[in-house]
Backbone:
């Protein structure tokens, strides 16, 4: 009789748990990425297809072509978009309220870190005949600079890199040049046609837009001297080396700084949803790589590590990593 009672109780517990899962309400998630044509937009589209199969039936995910590595953290902190892509470096700034952020965004939480590798790169037309951005200041060259839109880490990184050389957008304009902040659809054409002289961007290996520029324009990738790398590292970047031949016209390794992409959320996201998102991404690496080669270096086992996330983990994500035995 006692054994029957125990079995009955266990059955009720299991049934109750399953009932709770099946009774989950559909969720509607807005997913902040970056403009169309960027790796992040493709990342978002790839992930959303996976998540539509694992979130409660009837759930929807809207992949939004904004706002970038700097702006996305602000959107998530306000809960305008419950999930978004960010970077370890911008996560640190946002959580601590420095650099691009006037106030601490301490409600941010990490879901999946170390999704890829990004590098901050400066690319110039070979016809400029320069080997360093320092020469722009020395010669007061009227260069036409391009970056991604304001609010992206690419544009913020461009400003910080120029600052390392004592340069500003105003300087370029004063010397007859310009600074234009647009999407890759415009940047690619400008660099291919020779209307753009310099591009500063954050890129993944084999980035499609940079690949097109390097293939159809005669460009040069500039390496950063140690003192410039050290200055950027003080801002939270990590010293990094982009291997040779990631792109055409890049026969040598490029010394620069880098950081990984992180999928972030906030404290308002329900634990069950955070758990499902984390589990889905970590258990579908092959599908992610099919969607974009930038995921090739993603290691789900290390996706929880502080150096791969930059902010505290969401409790739902932490539960998944602990269940897998990966997180300490």
Residues:
């Amino acid at each position: 009789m006692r054994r029957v009672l125990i079995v009955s109780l266990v059955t009720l517990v299991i049934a109750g748990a399953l009932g709770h899962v099946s009774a989950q309400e559909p969720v509607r998630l807005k997913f902040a990425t970056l403009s169309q044509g960027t790796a992040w937009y493709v990342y978002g589209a790839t992930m959303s297809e996976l998540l539509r199969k694992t979130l409660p039936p009837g759930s929807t995910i809207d992949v939004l072509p904004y706002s970038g590595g700097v702006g996305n953290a602000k959107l998530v902190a306000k809960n305008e978009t419950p999930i978004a892509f960010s970077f370890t470096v911008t996560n640190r700034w946002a959580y601590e309220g420095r650099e691009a952020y006037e106030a601490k965004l301490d409600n941010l939480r990490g879901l999946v870190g170390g999704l890829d590798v990004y590098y901050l790169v400066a690319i110039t037309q070979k016809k400029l005949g320069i080997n360093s951005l320092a020469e722009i200041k020395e010669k007061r060259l009227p260069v036409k600079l391009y970056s991604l839109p304001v609010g992206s880490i690419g544009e913020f990184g461009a400003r910080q890199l120029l600052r390392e050389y004592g340069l500003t957008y105003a300087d370029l304009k004063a010397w007859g040049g310009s600074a234009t902040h647009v999407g890759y659809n415009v940047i690619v054409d400008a660099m291919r046609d020779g209307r753009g002289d310099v591009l500063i961007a954050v890129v993944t290996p084999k980035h499609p837009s940079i690949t097109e520029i390097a293939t159809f324009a005669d460009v040069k990738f500039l390496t950063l001297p140690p003192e410039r790398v050290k200055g950027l590292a003080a801002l939270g970047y990590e010293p990094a080396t982009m291997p040779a031949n990631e792109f055409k016209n890049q026969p040598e390794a490029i010394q620069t700084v880098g950081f990984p992409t992180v999928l972030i959320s906030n404290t308002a996201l329900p634990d069950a949803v955070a758990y499902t998102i984390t589990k889905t991404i970590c258990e579908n690496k092959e599908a992610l790589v099919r969607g974009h080669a930038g995921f090739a270096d993603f290691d789900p086992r290390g996706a929880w590590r502080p150096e791969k996330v930059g902010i505290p983990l969401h409790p739902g994500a932490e539960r998944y990593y602990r269940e897998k035995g990966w997180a300490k």
About this structure: The first strand starts at residue 28 and ends at 33. Confidence is low (pLDDT under 50) at residues 1-23. Residues 279 and 294 are 19 Å apart (CA to CA). DSSP finds 14 helices and twelve strands in the chain.
